[in-house]
Amino acid sequence: MSTTEPDPIQAGVRVTLAITRPCECPLAAASTDSGARVDSVARTSCGSQTSTSTEFTVQSDSAADGVDGDPVFRTDEGVRYRCQCEAETCLADLVESYGCPVSDVHAVDGTLYLVFYAPDPDRVREIVAAARERFDDVAVRNLSQSGELVGNGFVSVDTGRLTERQREVLATAYEMGYFDYPKGANAEEVAGELGISPSTLAEHLAAAQQKVLGPVARESL
Description:
With 221 residues, the chain is an alpha+beta fold. The chain has helices spanning 26-34, 91-96, 121-134, 164-175, 187-194, 198-220, and strands spanning 13-20, 38-44, 51-58, 70-74, 79-86, 102-108, 111-118, 138-146, 154-157. The strands form 2 sheets. A 5-stranded antiparallel sheet has the order 6-7-1-8-9. A 4-stranded antiparallel sheet has the order 2-3-5-4.
């Protein structure tokens, strides 16, 4: 009698996005106004297509002046607020419109962090592109991909280790097709776009690739 092996669970991608001081985001603003972490975010659409009722906790002993929301109650963690978030300024709504579940939303020092799961890297690229059309300073801070249910687990790539200049160099090289085969642009063309010499470009790329690929290489050993 033959047995059929169950289909492996398909690999998924866990993504952390960071937006520095997003305009009109009450969570990011509350973290700035209070000087405290904002987390425990809960969202309810209430049937509205244009806004979402959002509750969040500011980890502070007392209500902070200037927080865009109504204090609801106090917990051991801090003060609970409720506000209305416009759909067009809500990163979580944007991500979920692509069919990707959001697992965590929090804000620290004016930066909004959002963790979500996507079925594949192509979906991640679509979401990041759409986010960058709507918001400034969108960065992928962490990208982890799982294998089968029984396998090697996660390989994590933390782009937060990159400097702003290294991130700019990598993004420019990627967008110009430097990493494509055949190449869409050579080193001189990329360096010219960045206003640096080819040797400086090589140094930036080598340092950035070492930081990004190091964890992957170590996982493969």
